[in-house]
Every structure is written in C-alpha cells, then in structure tokens.
Amino acid sequence: MCLCQARKIASTGDSTSYKSYTLGNFRNIEQISRLSEEQKFAIDVVARVLPFKTNNYVVNELIDWDNVPDDPVFLLNFPQQGMLLPRHFEQMAKLVRNKAAKNEITACANRIRLELNPHSAGQMEHNRPLLNGRILSGMQHKYKETVLCFPSQGQTCHAYCTFCFRWPQFIGVEELRFAMQEAEQLVQYLKVHPEVTDVILTGGDPLIMRTRAISSYLRKLISADLPHLKTIRIGTKTLSYWPQRYISDADADDLLLLFDEVAAAGKHLTIMAHFNAPQELETELVRNAICRIRSTGAQIRTQSPLLRHINDQPESWIAMWKRQVNLGCVPYYMFVVRDTGAHHYFGVPLARAWKIFRTAYRQVSGIARTVRGPSMSAMPGKVQVLGVSEVGGEKVFVLQMLQGRNPQWVARPFFAAFDGQATWLDELRPAFEEESFFFSKELAELQAGGPAVSALQ
Ligand SMILES: *Cc1c(COP(=O)(O)O)cnc(C)c1O
Ligand code: SF4
Hints:
single chain, 457 residues, alpha/beta, two-stranded antiparallel ribbon, 15 helices, globular, binds pyridoxal-5'-phosphate, binds iron/sulfur cluster
C-alpha cells in the first residue's frame, strides 16, 4: 500500500481484545499447554524475581510456537530457568514447591534482586539535573545536548523484556496531574539550558500512556518558547508489543494528530523504536503502524541491544536492518547489554559483539549503515567498540565515545588491552601498559563532584 494512503487504514485489528498475561494467569494462554511441566515451573519460579508480563499480540502474532523454546520473542518475554543463577533458582524453587507464604517469597525475591546489580552504570544517581537548587527526579541530563524525561505514568510496558535493566523502576501507573507538573518542570529546566536541542521521553514506555497524557508533555514543549529545542524523541517498544496503539486503540487517531501538531510546530519528532528480532517487523499490524506514523512527518529510528540466545547471529541484524530500511525506518544503535539482571544469560563478550556487528554491517547497503555499535552506555559515555587491531605487536581494542559526559571526549580513538572475555568497559585495562584511559582522571573528578552535579554545570 502506498504511504499517502496510510491514514486511511483505520480500525484494522481490534484493540478491545487486549489481553495481558502475568504470573497469575499465564497458564490460561492456550499455547502454554505445549510446554513441559518443568518449563512451566521454571516460568513460575523465575517470574517471582524478574518481572513477567506479556499480551495476546505477542503470544499470537509474534511468537512462533513451533520454534519454542528457541524462539527469540518467546525468550524475550517468557522467563527461563537459565535467567537465574543456579543457586538463586534453587532458593526460589524450593519456596514455590513448598508453597511458602507470600512474604517469604517476596523477601527471597528481594534478596536475589539486590544481587542482580539493579542500578547499573550509575545512571540514576549521577546525572540528575538541578533546577533552583532542587533535584529533578523524573529527568536525567548526562550529555550536553540531550535531556531524558521519564514520565511517571510511562514507567511500565505492554510486555516486559526478560533482559531489561529498567525493572527496578516499574512502579505502576500514576495520575495525570503528575504529568502536568513534570512537563512544567521540564520546560522550566529547558528555558535555562539553551544548549539542549533534544528531549527524549523514555520509560518504561511513554507510549503506554494515553494520548491525553502524552499531549500534556508534547503540547507544553511545542507551545513553550524554546527555539533551541529542535527534536523530540520518544523511546518505545509499542511497535513491537502493541502496534494497535497507532491503528485501532480508541485514541490512536488522536495520537497521530498530536504527532502532526509537533511537525507543524517546526519540531522534529522521532520515534526511537526498539526491535530485538526480525519477526517483530513482519506482521501486517506493525507495517501499517509504521506507515501511519510516517504519514505524520515523524521519523522512526531503531535500536536494540545485542542479546545472547535472542539475536547474537549476524543474520538477525541483517534481516532487521534490511527490513527496517525497507519500511522507511533508520537503523540507529546496536547496544551492548548492560551488566544487570540476567546478564549471565544475555551477555555477549565485546570481541564477539564487534564480530557480529561487522559481519552484519558489511552485508547491508550504505542506506542501512546509519547504525552505530556495538555501543556501551557506560559511566563516561557511550563507548563504541570500533574493532580489534594490533599495534606494535600488542592486540588491542580500538574504542571511541559516541557520547561523553564531557563532550571533548567524543570521537577520540583510544585503546584497551584485548580481552576476549570482557563484556563491559569496566573490565578493560588501558593498552600499552598505560596507567589509565585519557578520560579517567577527569571522570573521577566529575563523580567526586557529587551525585547531583552533571558534567555540564
Ligand atoms: C543514549 C543517551 C542519549 C542520547 O544520545 P544520542 O547519541 O544523542 O542518541 C542521551 N542521554 C543518555 C543518558 C543516553 O544514554
Ligand atoms: S520495552 Fe524497554 S523498558 Fe519495557 S521491558 Fe522492554 S526493554 Fe524494558
């Protein structure tokens, strides 16, 4: 179908049929009967610790049940035994088997969660913006030109990804008036930060919010006098988990009209869409949703972490990037998965991540090579593994920052001693027997500056 017809696709699909599944009712899913008792028990155990939620679109349209348990989307949503360390699994399995009391299970879950490094990369502690001496809690300002905003109503998702590092912040839905207050604070902050060109609404998933709530952010941003604000990004997984959001939800048309308004106000709106596996891009619903979004003038950029068991084959990325470009989306980031939650299950060593990236990258046309990666969102910045090389007989990683807490650090190549097992920046040592990386001293000073001081102040 031609794009100019996109807005005419209305009300295909039936969003009144939305069904959500969690620990309490997942055994009602028809296809679950295909799993062994052991597999069902594992879901029951692991879901006590890692958040578990899925829905009928994911279950019926995305997961290929003939390919279970290897199906990537099945692994993306359904907890697996291997996602807990054996000792953690055993501790919880024992309680579930013995039908232990709820408070005992909760206590055990919390103990295990604390061991899963719930707040990695100092994200929340170190980049809190200040306004008139007060810390703004729903925001983060780490890189000069971009402010992140976490709408409090958007701190949940249509389904939960088993690898997600944001699970500590899934706090449930709050009231509309918070949105108004938060949007107002955001605008006040932007007024005194003319260096900011981009606002990213993120979560959870901001597009879990009703259009009315989203509009209180977007309308405030576009109607405030903020000539330096050029781009509004919305980070979302709705195109994967509930494309009906843009097609047949009761306020889908209003959402598109809101996107129109942003464009009409002269701001660029970009949906930062999260896709982990090729099949998420294959349904008629996602295709129509992409068409409808693009008909508003909004752009769609795509990103995903590289995840063992789910997409750690170059073929997955080649298929995703090609399909994305074919649908008019722009591949943006391949991330290295953070060291939190079920990292032992999903983690991919940096050396292997780079190989997968490179193998995929060189097999797609230049149009898809807008993608950058593999990139770690680490304490000093977004660090890209440019490759493995040899300098003066020493095997090294060549790295660079795509973003830095100090903008001066960006795009300056640096070297780490090669380590085939390393999965994160903090496991790397400088190459050539140097004491530290070029940014280490300054980073330590920034951190010592206290949690509320960002690199920019
Ligand atoms: C990734 C990220 C951004 C956006 O960086 P871009 O390179 O502009 O996409 C902004 N803030 C934080 C904290 C981030 O992690
Ligand atoms: S959609 Fe994003 S925030 Fe939500 S569970 Fe998945 S990775 Fe986490």
